[in-house]
């Protein structure tokens, strides 16, 4: 079974649409890769497969091989060139030079790679969705992976049931299923829907690795302020109510949007601080579309935020396996 090559499977869930599950999945994958982990991303949002666009590989196609499909490679394992980081910037000292970063390989599988045209509508009933999800889990020839992240559609529908039924059929897959990251936004209307997803995890026996509160704040591209547009704190309160870990809050960063949409390296005004950390100022003249996505992501304000998330997740998962 192709899942035998995977050490840990993490589901990215939410009971609410539009909370940014695909964005969170993308950044979790990039952050894990930057920590040297080999990562796969499986997109089972069949009616809205956006993972190919997030990784800038929309024009790619999966290849057939004896026994199944070969996922699309985002980047291979390699060492990125050294870059600057702002460890001393908050204290007024010069940014320090870091050593080259060894990144793990990253690959993806999505229905978006199979559809003839990107804009084609997927009009499928439940049984066909169920069959597609099962085929993704049994016919994708993943290389050896430390983590497989599964980007899911909103709710608790056919895709979720088929996903868990297939994963829980074998003892090996059950041991590999590390748990779920649940995504919400701060507003009460989103929290009320996401609570249903937490109840779903409880009823199905899926361990919640943590709650991420997305869109909690806005990183202004014209000043150094990060203000709370949609309030903040609802996700943390919900996590406490359900006695599950709260990973943290993620602001909206237009520079990350530009990175995904146009491939432009992130830039920030001098003095920008996100999550208590100062960012390195980059002149507009050195903006570039060259380089790998994972390389450019290192300069995003959200990279250190997700770096902390995945360090906690990986530590928790590996400690439970060791125990």
From TrEMBL:
Keyword Cytoplasm listed: yes
Any one annotated GO CC term: cytosol
CDD domains: Mrp_NBP35
Biological process per Gene Ontology, one example term: iron-sulfur cluster assembly
UniProt GO molecular function: 4 iron, 4 sulfur cluster binding; ATP binding; ATP-dependent FeS chaperone activity; metal ion binding
Highest taxon above the source species: Eukaryota
Binding site for ATP: 15-22
Keywords per UniProt: 4Fe-4S, ATP-binding, Cytoplasm, Iron, Iron-sulfur, Metal-binding, Nucleotide-binding
Subcellular location: Cytoplasm
Residues annotated for [4Fe-4S] cluster binding in this entry: 220, 223
Predominant subcellular localization, coarse grouping: cytoplasm
HAMAP family: Mrp_NBP35 (MF_02040), NUBP2 (MF_03039)
Family of this protein: Belongs to the Mrp/NBP35 ATP-binding proteins family. NUBP2/CFD1 subfamily.
Role, per record: Component of the cytosolic iron-sulfur (Fe/S) protein assembly (CIA) machinery. Required for maturation of extramitochondrial Fe-S proteins. The NBP35-CFD1 heterotetramer forms a Fe-S scaffold complex, mediating the de novo assembly of an Fe-S cluster and its transfer to target apoproteins.
Name by which UniProt lists this protein: Cytosolic Fe-S cluster assembly factor CFD1
Species: Paraphaeosphaeria minitans
């Amino acid at each position: 079974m192709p899942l035998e090559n995977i050490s840990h499977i993490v589901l990215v869930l939410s009971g609410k649409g539009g909370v940014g599950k695909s964005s969170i999945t993308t950044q979790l994958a990039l952050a894990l890769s930057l920590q040297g982990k080999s990562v796969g991303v499986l997109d089972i949002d069949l009616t809205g497969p956006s993972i190919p666009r997030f990784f800038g590989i929309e024009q790619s196609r999966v290849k057939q091989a004896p026994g199944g499909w070969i996922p699309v490679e985002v980047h291979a394992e390699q060492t990125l060139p050294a870059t600057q980081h702002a460890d001393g910037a908050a204290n007024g000292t010069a940014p320090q030079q870091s050593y080259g970063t060894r990144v793990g390989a990253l690959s993806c599988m999505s229905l978006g790679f199979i559809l003839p045209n990107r804009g084609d509508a997927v009009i499928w009933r439940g049984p066909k969705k169920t069959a597609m999800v099962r085929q993704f889990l049994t016919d994708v020839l993943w290389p050896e992976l430390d983590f497989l992240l599964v980007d899911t559609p909103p709710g608790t529908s056919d895709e979720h049931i088929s996903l868990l039924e297939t994963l829980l059929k074998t003892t090996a897959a059950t041991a590999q299923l590390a748990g779920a990251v649940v995504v919400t936004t701060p507003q009460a209307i989103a929290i009320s829907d996401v609570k249903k997803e937490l109840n779903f995890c409880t009823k199905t026996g899926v361990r919640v690795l943590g709650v991420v509160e997305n869109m909690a704040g806005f990183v202004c591209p014209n000043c150094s302020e990060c203000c709370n547009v949609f309030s903040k704190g609802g996700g943390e309160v919900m996590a406490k109510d359900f006695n599950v870990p709260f990973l943290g809050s993620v602001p909206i960063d237009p520079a990350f949007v530009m990175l995904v949409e146009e491939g432009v390296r992130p830039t920030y005004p001098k003095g920008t601080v996100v999550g208590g950390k100062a960012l390195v100022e980059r002149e507009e003249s050195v903006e570039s579309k060259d380089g790998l996505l994972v390389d450019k992501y290192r300069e995003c304000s959200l990279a250190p935020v997700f770096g902390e998330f995945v360090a906690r997740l990986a530590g928790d998962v590996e400690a439970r396996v060791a125990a």
